[in-house]
TrEMBL record:
Stretch forming the signal peptide: none
Annotated protein name in UniProt: Endonuclease/exonuclease/phosphatase domain-containing protein
Organism whose genome encodes this protein: Hibiscus trionum
GO molecular function: catalytic activity
Endonuclease/exonuclease/phosphatase domain location: 6-144
Amino acid sequence: MVKIIYWNVQGALDLGFNCPFKLLIKKRRLDIFAIMEPYISGFEADNIIRRSGFDSSYRVEAQGFSGRIWILSRDTMRVNVLVFSNQYVHVHCAMSDGGGSFFVSFVYASLDAMKQCYLWEQLMALDPGSRFPWVVGGDMNVIGSISERRSGSQH
């Protein structure tokens, strides 16, 4: 069984990040850990990723308010980045023991409705069809009801 977690951390330097991050890694024995909105890059990001114990990583750095995705993986998976943008990373994953392969799209959608529409068009174009498993997950930045809103316009 492959274990993948998507986590919108909203700040990898926050006090509430480090302990849960280490605990999830230790207890869940994850194959892939996707982190959205770490709010850090460069040297600080390198240090956190290096200390995580994962064997490889891939990052989409922030471009304005979009594109904050880290993908950390163990050597139990061969993760090949096929396509990326500031809203998603699409990868092909193959189990190192030859046990199978699948596609994953890690998403951190823009808050802008037009950019979200473009994202969905791009994702639909990536659909591998029924021949291969495909997982799409992440932060879609979609509000299901007005009660979920925390700030901003009510319209």
